[in-house]
Amino acid sequence: MNNNQPINKPSFALTTPLYYVNGLPHIGSAYTTMIADAIARWYRLSGHPVMFVTGTDEHGQKIQRTAEQNGIPPQEHCDTIVHSFQDLWQKLDIQYDSFTRTSADKHEIIVKEFFQRVSEQGDIYLSQQQGWYCVGCEEFKEERELEEDKHCPIHTNQKVEWRDEENYFFRLSRYQQQLEELYESNPEFIQPQSRRNEVMNFVKQGLQDFSISRINVSWGFPIPDDPKHTIYVWFDALLGYVTALLEEEDEVTLENAIKKWYPFNLHLIGKDILRFHAVYWPAMLLSAGLALPKQVFGHGFLTKDGRKMGKSLGNTLDPFELVDKYGSDAIRYYFLKEVDLGEDGDFNEIRFINKVNADLANDLGNLLNRSRGMLKKYCTNIFPSINEVNIDADNPVKQIAMVLPKHIREAYSSYNFNFLFTNILTLISNCNKYIDDSKPWALFKNGDQKEVEIILYVVLESVRFSAFALAPIIPKISNKIYHQLGYEFDFNNKELGSKIPISEEHWQWGQLNINPNLPEAEPIFAKLQLDYDNNNKKP
Ligand code: MSP
User: Fold this and answer.
1) Mutate to test the pocket of ligand 1, among 53, 56, 57 (most ligand atoms within 8 A of CB)
2) Which amino acid residue places its CA nearest to atom 19 of ligand 1?
3) Residue 406: is it exposed, middle or buried by C-beta count within 10 angstroms (0-12/13-18/19+)?
4) In angstroms, what is the span from residue 29 Cα to ligand 1's centroid?
5) Which pLDDT score is estimated for 163?
6) Domain spans of the chain?
7) pLDDT in tens, 34-79
8) What is the mean pLDDT of residues 376-398?
9) Fold designation for 349-507
10) Ligand 1: does its nearest atom lie under 6 Å from the Cβ of 237?
11) pTM of the model
């Protein structure tokens, strides 16, 4: 590999939401972050410079109250919780480029500068705010959105609270037409399609200005020139994305923050916070004269055993426990494969174990094992020197495999993980079938050595290609497979692809001459076992 080759692909900047630090990270935050990480890894592997932003949203009433309940100052509370996010991301092999915290001093400077810009446009004014407020969502709710007895539909264990106070407002209504034009002329701006429709219907009903300050919350930044007001947590949090782009040595200004990676290519979020990202945020940016993100993608919600998750419901899924029990690759694989991106999805521990074992241990792992076994037996462990040109055009695996590189790129660039997995699993199952049908053991007995070598090449190259294509999702397993095939690639090296070029043969099928001297065969994925002590149910 050549280390110093300049690469001129366009950069790709993406974000997860900035997570509230009122409690430890939950599976919902882990889900968004795993998807974003897979996308970021794919772009890096493809040679794009990547800026992957994540972080924490630390202000507002929800966090202020949690800190009060714990009897500690809010900053101290945030400083403790933030580590659990960073720990979890490490355990899950998340490779972010910037971790931003909204309580940082530099963020205050950015928020104030932005506020000033919006204010100079005449988009901020003082008025009276009346309405039902959900502290869990940090959002005013319409009366008609509420469930029985004034409960929030998302935070069903919490009642909304009545507010009647003087607030600063942002003139959202002024941007109605520009937003409608944006959605019309950029069908990709909000994805998937169902969420786009949802937002367009909402905006069509007429946009109302929204309040961007609070007088009963002290934990936040004061409004410039009127410090009895605190800036509304969402107005502050969205700007955390911009602050994240500042380089260490930069003077803290908006201009510096947007000089390199801005605007964002993708804000990946859950469907519950779509309005903030697809309506409020672009309007705020239009007002401040900043460029808009290219896309907001709203994924679905996860349930556990078919039921909504929540602490008060006694139905949570602890991501720390999951990763400690089963390892990061299995978790990453399950959530990316079994939940269609954009749709709601469910987690059930038995199904999880069965699916992961079936795909990774039985299909992929076993294919590698059996072909490595045959290589030892029939080729004295020396890899034959063959490539795609030696393989007949009607070879059943070749026919499938030759179009795969194109499909894989399409799948990743459209975040269609379903298409990705279908392609790879089809390749793997066809390889297993190909071995069964072509019976290399019989060919070997007959002395058809060349035929045996072709079969083994076809299969091992397919396993290699699968490992490459799945590396953004299961990097540890991909590393092991590559090692088994005589390559010392480290898919956890963030520079691989974006700074260390990868030769084109890895992207193709059938171009690679596998190292003839392979290391001893080892299993790449140990089957997961259900922990019966912690599960009353049997599979
Ligand atoms: N702090 C705001 C985001 C500000 S972004 C400038 C926030 N934080 S959050 O911690 O409450 O939520 C973070 C993400 O977790 C959201 O994208 C939300 O959709 C996601 N999830 C929360 N529960 C979820 C599930 N049960 N399933 C999937 N994702 C869910 O909102």
Assistant:
1) 57
2) 270
3) exposed
4) 6
5) 92
6) 349-507
7) 999 999 999 999 999 999 999 999 999 999 999 999 999 999 999 9
8) 88
9) Isoleucyl-tRNA Synthetase; Domain 1 (1.10.730)
10) yes
11) 0.95
